[in-house]
From TrEMBL:
One Pfam family linked to the record: DUF2062
Protein known as: DUF2062 domain-containing protein
Transmembrane spans: 63-88, 95-117, 156-178
Keyword terms of this UniProt record: Membrane, Transmembrane, Transmembrane helix
Coiled coil: none
Domain DUF2062 stretches: 46-182
Domain of life: Bacteria
Organism this protein belongs to: Aquariibacter albus
Length: 204
């Protein structure tokens, strides 16, 4: 009769299978973060193990912080996300990688839409040319302050929504992975139980 598979071995096998099926993200190491502007001076705090441990809540909050700064500002997104992650002890790699949901390739349409949303919230009625100028950061005219306020308002709304979505997606995906792993463990244990000979079956 084969020996039953220990639960620890089952967890290791399931964890390896789950990691093999996940999409491969670029590896972000401590050395890479230490070379970033404004972050190199924080090399000692970056070495804290708690900032790199793969735990559910810090990862979810790190994703939320990164997604927030991805839309809140078009510059210094990664340094801002990492500083907040350091302050609140969140998962650093997730905070940095989440900023890439909004990149220079998407800045134009994203901030154009953010300006239109902000103008609508403030009760403004901008023309298409004014909206494009505000999204591009072009100043000029007496209404420039209103344009900047509209762009800022829309960007903050986008940032908050992105943070909430990122947090919910990580929490939901994590819970789904745990449930799926639990089902696999139960299935493996049932198969192992069926494979065992029943008590007394082998007695003469």
């Amino acid at each position: 009769m084969p020996d039953p598979i220990p639960p620890a071995s089952l967890r290791q096998r399931l964890g390896a299978a789950l990691r093999a099926r996940l999409p491969r993200l670029p590896r972000l190491r401590r050395e890479d973060l230490a070379r970033l502007p404004l972050i190199g001076r924080l090399a000692a705090p970056l070495g804290r193990p708690a900032l790199w441990q793969w735990r559910r809540e810090p990862v979810a909050r790190g994703a939320a912080i990164g997604a927030f700064f991805a839309f809140a500002t078009p510059v210094a997104q990664i340094p801002a996300a990492l500083l907040c992650a350091l302050l609140f002890r969140l998962h650093l790699p997730t905070a940095a990688l989440a900023t890439f949901v909004n990149s220079p390739l998407t800045f134009g349409p994203v901030y154009y839409a953010a300006y239109l949303l902000g103008a609508w919230l403030l009760g403004l009625n901008p023309s298409a040319a004014e909206a494009e100028a505000a999204a591009a950061g072009v100043s000029g005219g007496p209404a420039w302050g209103e344009r900047a306020l509209a762009l800022l308002s829309g960007s903050l709304v986008f940032a908050v929504l992105a943070a909430l979505m990122a947090y919910a997606l990580v929490q939901g995906g994590w819970a789904w992975a745990l449930r799926r792993r639990a089902r696999r463990i139960r299935a493996l244990r049932q198969v192992d139980a069926r494979a065992r000979p029943r008590g007394g079956a082998g007695c003469a």
